């Protein structure tokens, strides 16, 4: 046994060294490395030390068992390793299956060169070795050469084995063409009688270069040459036929025209092209190698895998090869830094050498400091890139510039659509081909882009040029290119904003000093362009670019004039455009906000062409997936659209709404074909069976009324009612064969139903809270579910067993959906995330942070890897699940008034809205005096402190904010809630604050410090409303659990629980004397409670849900806000409805009383119709209507082009006008 049972890498390298005496090991290592790459085994770029040791052992005649013994390895394990590794490399190399280890040695003997002979023993070719005459002229040293093993082997094979006559080594500057040609020549020189290397950097004439070569190859025997180029080339060909010569001509690109299509020769240098043609066409025994940054014209006809002319495109060095450059420069680089540098410079050896030197000279060898710099392109690298760019023709420059501005992979079709004025597709194709030949482009599966270092250099130059154009008013690039593409994928728009828009603004502000001066200057530019366009609109991107700059500057665009201009690619989704004038403008490809509200449901059509969305504003919208345009707005539901499903043929849709109805729609026309009535409450779920199902004429719906109805689609008849659930039905899904219907309920269960009989087959009971969503896997063997217990579960349908329960979400899970192939499951939650789960491994493989509120609905596109999500934030997003990127956002806009409160003086009214803002109104004048805008989602509650100098607000963004009413600034953000905060209330003394939300808890805050001082637990579900008693001793709360709880403020103990409502409690009000408390509920009742006894004194019934209640000052009147769009006034003693106040057009969410000096006692109401109304309670007259201007209030779109009819309708809904 060897003395060392575990040899080191160094000891491995010492084993079987006798193989060096007979075999060219370095050549074998290289060849087998290439074979290893072809096997796809790139974890180790080169052969490992043990693989080399095993190879040497085999070549010395040792068996695998003997090799194992020598290497202190277990024989069986080594034989397995050989079978999986070295034997496979040998088979790939010789293209012959191995029989055993002896056969491997036999095959390698046939393949390789025996160093004791002068003949190559491979039967495919025979080459005599020479003592060549060599002229390397000014060729650089071959010592500093890194990697390129595979390329050397490939070139050697072409030259030595396949006898190629002409080789073209292509690559961008610095990629290593020259070094490769020198090393290749030195490696194979023994196979030639003559080698001559010449640089063409100084562009010698063809006559000069031909003379030098002929004189060298002829050993000076030919002293008199023909005068013509043809004659000289003929003489050279004779020499190449007579002797085996290797000619290497470096820097061929210096012979080609700059600023012209790649490959065309400069005037006076066409003879070089003639030389190449002759070398390619005429048979001889020599080889001409040229290196070039561009492929010369005229060689395509001679080039091919079986022909004698070949091209090799050089890519950059990989990580292992690149590390030698840093080592040679003495730079210490960790793997992460090394990867960043090599990737950024795409492994360009010259660039890496320059960078290594700069890191040493300018940054003291500190790599991390270098990487933190904003620019990595300067000095010699910039000069290298500029050499390339100077050679481009106009169309090539246009392509490069568009790739810089687009920032991502760009297709030829996109380039065709972008370029103005338009050019022929043929020109773009030729430009792309030329740029590829120049090694400036990178090709991906979905288009082309630039290398990072090229993109940075060109972008910086373009930004400087654009700023100079703007400053001088001499517009060229600024009008020819879009700085930001409004219809781009979201992540690319973010990149354009960061790397193009913002840097331009910074440069311009450095010149104009202030935003105001810059804005005034840009406004004057627009006026100048309008004068120029008096005879017709001038096409281009300038006006759209200005708008995007102004939006980034947060300019107030009220009354700006953009009429008679081409306003292309302006992203105006979240921008107020009050009174802006777009008259007669072309708005092609500009993007505006949509009339979307909170998106409760999304669904793709089975053919993948359409996306349907249902929102909280009674709209069902149909979008064309390909271009993102809204093509239909389906109107019929009187309020929230809660569920959507497409028919299997994509021709019809069904929807369920808060109007208790199911509707059937024609997808082509948008017409409502049927309305199915029968449910007694909101319809949260609808489902279509698959087309192949025997039940495909049956559709299903599920409701808050705890029932599931099965409908005959053709007749509209309800054929079955399934009633075993005891609470709300949240989700329905048909199995792939249509025979089973799954239902998810707030009763914590999932039920499986036989569709034909209506029998309940199984009840799945592993969830501990409400189940919000169910979905079948495409194979029909699994069922997924998600719910309020924050878990995603997978069920075996046959056994009804829960197979796995995934945790990770931190709030209710609203939606689960399988991908079409059933490999992954997506889940969306109120925690603002989407998680992707791998079914096979059971792992959470991706998590998307949505940067919006709760994710309410998910849908997979059946034809792609795109996932759609709908959220409370009035947004629909499309996600690429392979990259995790958001590729498209539809941004809605609405401003429902959710909450209102009077200041103690009654002079100011605060209103909180779903547009994330709080408005402060002067009650007497009805004018908005301030807008408080720091919340990131819906504002759900507002409350003044007793002094009237502070305002508290609660929000779906999980925070409570405190505002200074003098400065209108946010003083503090109170963080402690982990989900939506639904209500907020000040203590009568103003020192503490209470808030309640989705977590079932009430939080008590110290107003001065902003810290949470108490947490009150007791509710079984969400806390919708909180309110202090007038004396401050009691805190009342109303919850999803249908109860009102009364808490001792000092101790935090729940003193009483008032039970009587049957559904969630939405509003509370104390009488001013604190003796009674009123509560209102989704159960359509108001209850008056005696505070001391906790008993119900009075119950008022309404026809619809009640969201808010308020007592007047003397406690005789009670106001209610209802979903029937009315405000009602009730006599507290008799329980009679005294007045119904009409005027709101949508649901009323909030009411509040106050006495105002000029107006007396008034009532305020806030509504889904985006208004606050002030009422005279004696007459029932509406005194004032307070409405915030809409997003596009009085924006003039008369005569605009580039918009569809549906888009115009949307803009008008958002306030635009058309004269």
UniProtKB/TrEMBL annotation:
Gene3D superfamilies: P-loop containing nucleotide triphosphate hydrolases (3.40.50.300), YVTN repeat-like/Quinoprotein amine dehydrogenase (2.130.10.10). This is NB-ARC domain-containing protein. Residues 154-251 form the NB-ARC domain. The keyword Repeat applies. It comes from the Bacteria. PANTHER family: F-BOX AND WD REPEAT DOMAIN CONTAINING 7, WD40 REPEAT PROTEIN. WD repeats lie at residues 592-633, 634-675, 676-721, 722-763, 764-805, 806-847, 848-889, 890-931, 932-973, 974-1015, 1016-1057, 1058-1099, 1099-1140, 1141-1185. InterPro entries: NB-ARC (IPR002182), P-loop_NTPase (IPR027417), Quinoprotein_ADH-like_sf (IPR011047), WD40/YVTN_repeat-like_dom_sf (IPR015943), WD40_PAC1 (IPR020472), WD40_repeat_CS (IPR019775), WD40_repeat_dom_sf (IPR036322), WD40_rpt (IPR001680). One of its GO terms (molecular function) is ADP binding. Keywords: Repeat, WD repeat. It holds the Pfam family WD40.
């Amino acid at each position: 046994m060897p003395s060392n049972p575990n040899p080191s890498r160094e000891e491995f390298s010492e084993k079987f060294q006798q193989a060096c005496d007979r075999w060219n090991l370095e050549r074998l290592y290289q060849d087998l490395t290439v074979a290893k790459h072809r096997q796809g085994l790139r974890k180790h770029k080169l052969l490992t030390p043990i693989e080399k040791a095993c190879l040497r052992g085999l070549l010395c005649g040792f068996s695998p068992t003997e090799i194992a013994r020598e290497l202190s390895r277990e024989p069986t394990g080594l034989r397995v390793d050989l079978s999986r590794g070295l034997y496979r490399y040998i088979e790939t190399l010789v293209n012959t299956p191995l029989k055993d280890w002896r056969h491997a040695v036999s095959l390698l003997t046939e393949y390789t060169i025996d160093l004791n002979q002068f003949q190559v023993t491979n039967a495919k070719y025979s080459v005599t070795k020479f003592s060549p005459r060599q002229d390397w002229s000014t060729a650089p040293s071959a010592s500093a050469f890194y990697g390129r093993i595979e390329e050397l082997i490939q070139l050697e094979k072409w030259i030595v084995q396949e006898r190629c006559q002409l080789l073209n080594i292509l690559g961008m500057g610095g990629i290593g063409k020259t070094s490769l040609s020198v090393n290749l020549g030195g490696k194979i020189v023994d196979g030639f009688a003559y080698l001559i290397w010449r640089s063409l950097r100084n562009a010698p004439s063809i006559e000069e270069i031909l003379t030098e070569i002929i004189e060298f190859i002829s050993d000076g025997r030919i002293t008199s040459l023909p005068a013509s180029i043809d004659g000289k080339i003929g003489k050279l060909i004779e020499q190449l036929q007579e002797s085996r010569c290797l000619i290497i001509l470096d820097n061929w690109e210096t012979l080609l025209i700059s600023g012209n299509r790649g490959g065309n020769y400069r005037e006076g240098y066409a003879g070089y092209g003639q030389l190449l043609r002759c070398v390619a066409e005429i048979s001889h025994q020599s080889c001409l190698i040229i290196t070039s940054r561009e492929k010369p014209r005229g060689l395509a006809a001679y080039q091919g895998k079986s022909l004698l002319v070949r091209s090799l495109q050089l890519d950059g060095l990989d990580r292992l090869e690149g590390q030698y450059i840093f080592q040679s420069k003495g730079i210490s680089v960790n793997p992460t830094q090394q990867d960043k540098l090599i990737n950024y410079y795409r492994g360009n050896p010259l660039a890496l050498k320059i960078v290594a030197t700069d890191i040493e000279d300018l940054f003291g060898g500190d790599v991390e400091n270098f990487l933190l710099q904003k620019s990595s392109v300067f000095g010699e690298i910039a000069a290298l890139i500029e050499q390339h760019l100077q050679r481009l023709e106009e169309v090539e420059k246009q392509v490069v510039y568009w790739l810089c501005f687009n920032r991502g992979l760009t297709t030829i079709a996109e380039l065709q659509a972008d370029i103005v004025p338009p050019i022929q597709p043929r020109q773009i194709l030729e430009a792309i081909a030329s740029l590829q030949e120049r090694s400036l482009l990178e090709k991906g599966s979905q288009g082309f882009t630039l290398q990072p270092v090229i993109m940075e250099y060109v972008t910086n130059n373009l930004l400087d040029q654009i700023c100079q154009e703007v400053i001088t008013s001499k517009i060229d690039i600024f009008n020819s290119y879009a700085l930001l593409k409004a219809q781009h994928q979201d992540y690319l728009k973010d990149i354009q904003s960061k790397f193009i828009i913002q840097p331009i603004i910074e440069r311009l502000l450095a010149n104009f000093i202030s935003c105001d001066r810059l804005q005034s200057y840009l406004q004057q530019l627009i006026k100048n362009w309008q004068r120029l366009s008096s005879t017709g609109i001038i096409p281009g991107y300038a006006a759209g670019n200005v708008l995007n700059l102004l939006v980034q500057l947060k300019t107030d665009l009220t009354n700006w004039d953009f009429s008679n201009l081409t306003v292309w690619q302006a992203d105006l989704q979240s921008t107020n455009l009050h009174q802006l004038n777009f008259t007669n403008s072309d708005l092609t490809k500009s993007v505006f906000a949509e009339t979307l509200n909170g998106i409760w449901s999304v669904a793709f059509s089975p053919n993948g062409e359409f996306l349907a969305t249902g929102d909280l504003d009674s709209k069902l919208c149909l979008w064309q997936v390909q271009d993102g345009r809204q093509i239909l707005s389906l109107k019929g539901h009187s309020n929230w659209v809660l569920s959507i499903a497409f028919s299997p043929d994509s021709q019809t849709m069904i929807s369920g709404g808060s109007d208790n109805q199911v509707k059937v729609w024609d997808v082509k026309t948008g017409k409502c074909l049927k309305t199915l009535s029968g449910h007694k409450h909101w319809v949260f779920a609808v489902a279509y069976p698959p087309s192949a199902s025997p039940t495909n004429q049956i559709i299903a719906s599920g409701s808050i009324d705890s029932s599931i109805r099965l409908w005959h689609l053709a007749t509209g008849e309800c054929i079955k009612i399934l009633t075993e659930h005891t609470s709300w039905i949240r989700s329905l899904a048909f199995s792939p064969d249509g025979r089973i219907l799954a239902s998810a309920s707030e009763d914590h269960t999932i039920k499986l139903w036989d569709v034909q009989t209506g029998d309940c087959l199984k009840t799945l009971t592993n969830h501990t809270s409400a189940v919000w969503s169910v979905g079948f896997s495409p194979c029909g063997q699994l069922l997924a579910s998600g719910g309020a217990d924050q878990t995603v579960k997978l069920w075996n349908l046959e056994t009804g067993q829960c197979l796995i329960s995934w945790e990770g979400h931190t709030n209710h899970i609203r939606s689960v959906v399988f991908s079409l192939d059933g490999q992954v499951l997506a889940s969306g939650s109120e925690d603002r995330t989407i998680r992707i789960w791998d079914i096979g491994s059971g792992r959470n493989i991706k998590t998307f942070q949505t940067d919006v509120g709760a994710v309410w609905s998910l849908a997979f596109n059946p034809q792609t890897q795109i996932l759609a999500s709908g959220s409370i934030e009035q947004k629909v997003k499309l996600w690429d699940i392979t990259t995790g990127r958001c590729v498209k956002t539809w941004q809605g806009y609405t401003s429902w008034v959710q909450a209102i409160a009077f200041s103690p003086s009654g002079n100011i009214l605060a209103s909180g809205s779903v547009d994330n803002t709080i408005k402060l109104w002067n009650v007497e004048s009805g004018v908005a005096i301030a807008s408080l805008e720091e919340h990131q989602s819906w504002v759900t509650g507002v409350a003044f402190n007793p002094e009237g100098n502070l305002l508290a607000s609660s929000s779906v963004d999980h925070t409570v904010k405190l505002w200074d009413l003098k400065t209108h600034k946010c003083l503090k953000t109170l963080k402690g809630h982990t989900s939506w905060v639904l209500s907020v209330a000040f203590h009568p003394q103003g020192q503490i604050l209470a808030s309640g939300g989705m977590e079932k808890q009430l939080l008590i805050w110290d107003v001065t410090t902003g810290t949470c001082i108490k947490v009150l637990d007791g509710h079984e579900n969400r806390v919708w409303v909180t309110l202090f008693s007038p004396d401050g001793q009691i805190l009342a709360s109303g919850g999803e659990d249908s109860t009102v709880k009364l808490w001792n403020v000092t101790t935090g103990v729940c003193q009483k629980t008032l039970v009587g409502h049957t559904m969630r409690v939405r509003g509370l009000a104390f009488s001013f004397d604190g003796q009674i408390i009123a509560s209102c509920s989704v159960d359509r009742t108001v209850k008056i409670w005696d505070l001391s006894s906790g008993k119900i004194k009075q119950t008022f019934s309404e026809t619809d849900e009640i969201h808010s209640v308020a007592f007047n000052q003397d406690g005789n009147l009670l106001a209610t806000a209802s979903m029937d769009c009315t405000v009602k006034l009730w006599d507290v003693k008799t329980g009679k409805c005294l007045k119904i106040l009409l005027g709101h057009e949508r649901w009323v969410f909030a009411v509040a009383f106050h006495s105002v000096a000029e107006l007396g006692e008034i009532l305020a109401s806030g509504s889904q119709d985006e208004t606050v109304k002030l009422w005279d309670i004696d007459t029932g007259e509406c005194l004032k209507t307070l409405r915030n201007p809409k997003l596009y209030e009085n924006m003039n779109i008369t005569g605009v082009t580039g918009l569809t009819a549906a888009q115009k309708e949307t803009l008008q809904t958002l306030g635009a006008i058309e004269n």
